Amino acid sequence: MSNLSMLTDLYEFSMANGYYEAANDEVGSFDVFFRKVPDQGSFVIFAGLQQAVDALENFHFDQPDIDYLRGLHLYSEGFLDYLQHFKFDCEVWAIPEGTPVFPREPLLTIKGPLLQTQLFETLLLNILNHQSLIATKARRITYAAEGRPVMEFGARRAQGPSSATYGARAAIIGGCTSTSNVQAAELFGIPAAGTMAHSWIEAFPDELTAFEKWGEIYPDNAALLVDTYDVLSSGVPNAIKVFKELQAAGHKPVGIRIDSGDIAQLAKAARQQLDAAGLPEVKITASNSLDETVIQALLKEGAPIDNFGIGEKLITSASAPVLSGVYKLTAVQSQGQWVPKIKISDSTEKLTLPSIKQVYRLYRPGSDQAFGDVIALKDEVLTSDITAVPASPLATKRQTVLKDFVAVPLQQPVLTQDHPDYVAPNLPEIQQRTQEKLAELPAATKRLVNPDEYRVYLTKSLADLQTELVQKYHEKEHVQ
Fold first, then answer.
1. Among residues 455, 431, 460, which one has the least CA distance to residue 445?
2. Where is the Nicotinate phosphoribosyltransferase N-terminal domain (predicted)?
3. How far is Cα 453 from Cα 377, in angstroms, rounded to an integer?
4. pLDDT digits (tens, 9 = 90+) for 370-413
5. What is the 3-state secondary structure (H, E, C) of 308-335?
6. Rounded Cα gap, residues 38 and 436, in angstroms
7. Could you tell me where the DSSP H helices lie in 152-232?
8. Which CATH class is domain 10-134+321-479?
9. Where are the domains of the chain?
10. What would the pLDDT profile of 422-457 be if each residue is shown by its tens digit?
């Protein structure tokens, strides 16, 4: 990954310069979390951690960067010299990539000098918000496909080259099987997939000649696009002729792709033609602005589709194009002691969770089925029975007792003194983790429409600390 140190909002530089000028060398702890799940779902697939860590490890300023900042006439020479000799001096804890996560849970925690940690806000949110959003959309689409392979086809509709490439990576984490994006395939070891465009067929005198030439050049990759002219009267019959020729020469036909029209009805009729020609093994792929809603409708109608190619609705998460993750200060270390910090708002939904925390996933003893998460203070020990409150500010039941569980901590050290080098899992391993962790969730929470709520709790100690800090603020405000 290229150096992304300048991918920072100006105010972050201004605050960092302020810390430098004020000789504030205190250590702060920031959390990355989100408040709302896209598409009215119940969870998000956490993605982008490897790129976030790479960006932190490669964080530095080149001479042109320093010259530009100097030219703004905002910052001291001492601060600019600090940036020129920048040395990463922070610790990072995070939930592993591919894990289903829930609102208000700290996905990533970074501790370090305020002067440094303040500079990472935009960079970390840009990476983690984007990839988590696309991985979550891919999970919804692959869930709708009910086990059928889903190919990511969205590069041309993505919002820029980086979104295309890292979006393809995130789509694999969310469950896609391949990508048409060759750059992403090369960078991340993703299977590359693709057939042809309509222009190939149009470039030849007729459709049959185009198919025959393709079969001649790619006899073992004969996946033919059949909707350039007419799917049923020309496309599929011409494809059948070529498939028969390939079979006679000892090759195995791959399939056809339908990219327009009434895909359900066309797929049914095409399947009948292929089967009648003795080609039941030939696959049917559907594309053309599909998403989870359309896929579910096609399958409910009985469309005999074997694969899906998904483009713009996936790579842009078109129905919910933003994951509004935030980066909030939760504690400051003063004279060796951690002092909890909180952001107070008139809206209870924007009230932050103070102090350094850990997230636990709760399982029944002897089971791999999760039934809830608990956000706890970092130094808390979860006993067999704990008093907890719902994490959602909108919950009506304010206290419950949790018992008979095994608590598994989710946040793990990523970059610390004891773990100075992050060893990232490869993409297939992250995808496998996603599938394993999804299997642990209650089935009703994975529905695409009206999913059941997965319970997330705060320990009573954390909830009491939050209440205490709010009360202290209001008491102080009243005195003033």
1. 455
2. 6-129
3. 23
4. 999 999 999 998 988 999 999 988 777 779 999 999 999 999 99
5. EEECHHHHCCCCCCCCCCEEEEEEEEEC
6. 22
7. 161-173, 182-188, 198-202, 207-217
8. alpha beta
9. 10-134+321-479, 135-315
10. 899 999 999 999 999 999 999 999 999 999 999 999
